[in-house]
Backbone:
C-alpha cells in the first residue's frame, strides 16, 4: 500500500525523492505518466484550482480531502503526500483530518504551526501558534494514526506524518529547529522547515535533526533560493516537493492561449511529435485505453466500434 511504500522510500539513506506538485486530475495524470516515485498535492494549487482563491486558509478540510482522495485513487501504487495545512481546527479536528486522509488512501501529510487563518509559507506577515499548540496538533495526529493502524493495518494506516514549522520568519532558525525537534519527539516522521532562505540553513537543519528525514519545499519565486535535487540530496534532504511545477506551467500556457483566443478569435491546434492533439490524445493520459479494456473485459459493448 502507498503509506508503506512511502515509508520504504524515505528510509533509503542517501537518496532524494522528488515529488512534483499536482492539484487536479490532469496534472496528477501528467506526473504519473512521467514515472515519479511520489506525488505531492499542493494546497495552494488546490485552493487556486478548486476555489479560484489564493492560499490564505480558505480551502476547508472537505475541499482538501476530496481532492487528495481523487488524486490518490488514480494510481494506488504511487504514494501521495498531501498538504493538510493546520489540520483545520483543534486536536479533535486534526485527528479527524488524519483519519480521513488515511481512509482516502493518502500516504503522507504535513501539519503546520500557523494560525488557522494561515497563508502560503512564502508570503510575509505569517503568524504562528505557540509551540504547545503546535505539539497538540502533532500529538493528535499521532493518536489518530495509531487508532487507524489498529483498524486498517500498518500498510495503509501508517501514514507518514510530516511536521512543518513556519517559525523561521518570526522567531528565527533555532526556535524553528526546536519546534521540529519536539514534533519528532512527539512522533512525527519527517521534519519540514518552511521558507528556508539558504542552502546552508538546509544543511544545518538536516544535520541537527539527523537521522530524521527532512523535506525541502522548492517554491518558484518564493523565499528559498533555487536548489537542485542533487544539491538537496548532498545537503542531507530526503524529500523535495515542487508545489508550483505544474501550476506555473499551466498558468503561463493558459495566459498565452486565452490571450490568443481573445486577440485573434482562433485557437491553435496543439501539435506534439508531429501529431495534432485532440480529445483522444488528452484522454489517453487519463487512462482511456484502460477504461476501454475494462469495459470489454466486463462484457460491455459500448466501445466495440472504437472511440
Ligand atoms: C507547500 C504549500 O503549502 C502548498 O500549498 O503547496 C505552499 C506552496 C505555495 O504556496 O506555492 C507553501 O506554503 O509553501
Residues:
Amino acid at each position: 500500500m502507498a503509506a508503506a511504500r512511502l515509508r520504504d522510500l524515505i528510509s533509503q539513506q542517501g537518496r532524494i525523492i522528488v515529488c512534483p506538485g499536482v492539484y487536479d486530475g490532469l496534472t496528477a495524470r501528467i506526473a504519473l505518466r512521467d514515472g515519479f516515485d511520489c506525488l505531492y498535492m499542493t494546497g495552494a494549487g488546490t485552493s487556486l484550482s478548486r476555489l479560484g482563491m489564493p492560499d490564505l486558509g480558505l480551502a476547508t478540510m472537505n475541499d482538501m480531502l476530496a481532492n487528495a482522495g481523487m488524486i490518490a485513487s488514480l494510481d494506488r501504487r504511487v504514494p501521495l503526500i498531501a498538504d493538510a495545512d493546520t489540520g483545520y481546527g483543534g486536536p479533535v479536528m486534526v485527528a479527524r483530518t488524519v483519519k480521513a486522509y488515511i481512509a482516502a488512501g493518502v500516504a503522507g501529510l504535513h501539519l503546520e504551526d500557523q494560525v488557522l487563518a494561515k497563508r502560503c509559507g512564502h508570503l510575509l506577515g505569517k503568524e504562528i501558534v505557540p509551540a504547545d499548540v503546535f505539539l497538540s496538533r502533532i500529538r493528535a495526529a499521532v493518536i489518530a494514526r495509531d487508532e487507524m493502524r489498529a483498524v486498517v493495518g500498518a500498510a495503509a494506516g501508517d501514514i507518514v506524518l510530516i511536521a512543518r514549522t513556519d517559525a523561521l520568519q518570526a522567531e528565527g532558525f533555532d526556535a524553528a529547529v526546536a519546534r521540529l525537534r519536539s514534533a519528532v519527539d512527539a512522533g512525527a516522521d519527517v521534519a519540514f522547515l518552511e521558507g528556508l532562505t539558504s542552502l546552508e540553513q538546509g544543511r544545518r537543519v538536516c544535520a541537527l535533526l539527523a537521522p530524521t528525514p527532512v523535506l525541502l519545499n522548492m517554491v518558484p519565486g518564493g523565499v528559498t533560493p533555487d536548489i537542485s535535487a542533487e544539491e538537496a540530496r548532498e545537503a542531507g534532504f530526503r524529500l523535495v516537493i515542487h508545489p508550483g511545477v505544474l501550476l506555473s506551467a499551466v498558468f503561463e500556457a493558459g495566459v498565452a492561449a486565452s490571450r490568443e483566443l481573445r486577440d485573434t478569435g482562433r485557437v491553435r491546434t496543439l501539435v506534439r511529435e508531429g501529431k495534432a492533439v485532440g480529445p483522444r490524445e488528452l484522454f489517453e493520459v487519463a487512462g482511456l485505453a484502460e477504461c476501454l479494456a475494462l469495459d470489454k473485459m466486463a462484457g460491455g459493448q459500448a466501445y466495440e466500434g472504437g472511440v
